[in-house]
Amino acid sequence: MKFYKIFLVAGLAIGMLSCKKESQITDLGNPTASNAARATLRVSLNNRAPAVGDSIVQTASTWHVNDNIDKIEFSETVVEKFAVNITLANTTLNSVVDAKPVFLIVDSVAKNNIFRTITNQNNEFDSFFETFSDAYVIRDVYKKFIPKDIKDADLINSLTNEGFASLKNHLGFNINIADYRLLFPGAPSTHFSGAVLSSIGRANLNANLTKQLLISNGLQTATKKGDLIVSLKVKVFSETTASNEVVNVFIAKY
Fold first, then answer.
1. Model-level pTM?
2. Count of Cβ atoms closer than 10 Å to residue 235 Cβ
3. Does 235 have pLDDT greater than 80?
4. Do 66 and 102 meet the contact criterion of CB atoms below 8 Å apart?
5. Does 254 map to a domain?
6. How many domains does the chain have?
């Protein structure tokens, strides 16, 4: 009986030793069986809070358990959110009051635009291998952290119908009477209420002021004030198209 108990304990010990835990690499998509493990990707930055006009240096470090990396992509998504300030001969219209926009125009400048790709054809990745980190290290300098350079008549013409409607509505409450008469000569007295437009005058401006009429009959300057939002993505693919990505978002006022 005692011999049987010793044998049973020994058997259990052997069984426990034979049930080893899978390694983290094996857990990562079972690369030996399917070669589908995602490559590891790390991205470091030289500046996490850039100002408009700054360059952003991304340093991407990547490696794969089987060294089966197919390509790496750098892409950008750029959005501007802004209000429009204009001046007429007698009117200065500020569309940002107490640091808050009266209305907001959203301009999608670029969406998932791939601006750099490195593939492993002809062993191109070998030139980026660094022995010290045992990884492929790719540095990219992003120099387009700048809003679109557009102003005055070009800016007015670029506005969507919704954006221009918001500008007109704001202008209706702030336009100088003399500037209104330049836009609408012969406007009747019902369009005015003292030194400002009446509800009839505002309705007329909203209904009949066109971009061309504003540009031709009074516009002196038009400028943007708002936020530049840039999303930079680095994405690495294994040879079986499994992928990994890192996204960093930057916001700056202008």
1. 0.80
2. 18
3. yes
4. no
5. no
6. 1
